Amino acid sequence: AKRNGRQRSVFYEAGLGDAAPERPDPAADLAAALDRGELTVAYQPLVDLRAGRAIGAEALVRWQHPVDGNRPPDTFIPLAEETGLIMEIGEFVLRDACWQAARWVQSSSDPTDLLVTVNLSARQVTDARTVEAVRAALADTGLEPHRLVLEITETVLMQDRDAAAANLNRLKALGVRIAIDDFGTGYSSLAYLCRFPLDMLKIAREFVDGLGRDANADVVTRAIVDLAGALGLRTVAEGVETGEQQQQLAELGCDLAQGYLFSRPVDAEKIMALIAGSDAE
Ligand code: C2E
Ligand code: CA
Ligand code: CA
């Protein structure tokens, strides 16, 4: 790992450790937060619109800072990406997600459709070590590969296409699934729908937001669902906040939905109860 103790120990050996003036070093702060266990994983349920029950969840990293409280991922993921720390954070989230999902499977009377989704950042998508990290997380937790869905934004796919394609093919060979996150908002060329081995499209919140209020949003959402259907991809609507949106998405034939209407991201115990409770119905 890049953030190993070397730099820090040189620093301490020089006797500067405690005496050093307090300079803000966000990267070191984040590395220390990971070491101290301040990073946790929240889960937001994925609801099957036909069955009307939670069949899994998206894993979302959280930083519970001792002074500032909750620091949203948007404030530290870019830094983690820049410094390479995302490889360790990503592996932490991945392992937690696989571990939790394996528990859901064990406690469910009908685990057929259960799945968990995990976000991969740009660096994770192009770094070959990610394949080994995913393989190890699955092996160590016993989670069946087809239950793990890796979410990737289209912008990431287009950045370093060859490396991304090579890695995605290796990940697919493990048996995991690939989803496009925030579909329709990135720098996108629909060519990637043919080029990459995809399983799922996540319809970005901005389209879902406009449903029933903006005729264009209705048309675009319908077109995405139809396109995905024709390509054999499942659809997930993001950011569903109203019953009208839910109903419209169900009518359009969208498969899954997530959003505040159903639940905010919650901790591992609550998601376990939500999925198990859903199961009992
Ligand atoms: P995302 O992957 O698009 O995740 C969805 C975000 O929308 C989450 O924000 C979630 O809390 C929020 N959300 C869910 N339902 C609703 C809704 O109904 N209305 C509204 N307004 N928002 C909703 P969060 O957790 O703050 O995450 C923000 C972004 O940070 C994520 O966007 C993702 O890009 C990134 N991120 C989060 N966790 C990870 C991670 O473990 N690894 C990586 N690489 N990125 C992550
Ligand atoms: Ca996501
Ligand atoms: Ca998203």
What does this protein look like?
- Mean pLDDT is 91; it is low at 1-15.
- This protein is an alpha/beta fold and 281 residues long.
- The chain is 48% helix and 19% strand.
- The protein has an 8-stranded mixed β-barrel, surrounded by 4 helices.
- 37% of the residues are buried.
- β1 and β2 (53-65) form a beta hairpin.
- It has helices at 5-13, 26-35, 77-83, 86-107, 122-126, 129-141, 154-159, 161-174, 192-195, 205-210, 215-231, 243-252, 268-280, and strands at residues 39-48, 53-65, 69-71, 115-119, 148-153, 177-183, 200-203, 234-237, 256-257.
- The chain has 13 helices and 9 strands.
- The chain is globular and about 60 Å long.
- It binds ligand C2E and calcium ion (CA) (2 copies).
- One calcium ion is lined by residues 181-182, 202, 238.
- It comes from Blastococcus saxobsidens.
- Residues 23-279 form the EAL domain.
Please write out the topology.
Blueprint: H1 5-13, H2 26-35, E1 39-48, E2 53-65, E3 69-71, H3 77-83, H4 86-107, E4 115-119, H5 122-126, H6 129-141, E5 148-153, H7 154-159, H8 161-174, E6 177-183, H9 192-195, E7 200-203, H10 205-210, H11 215-231, E8 234-237, H12 243-252, E9 256-257, H13 268-280
Parallel strand pairs: 2-4, 4-5, 5-6, 6-7, 7-8, 8-9
Antiparallel strand pairs: 1-2, 1-9, 2-3
Helix pairs in contact: 4-6, 4-13, 6-8
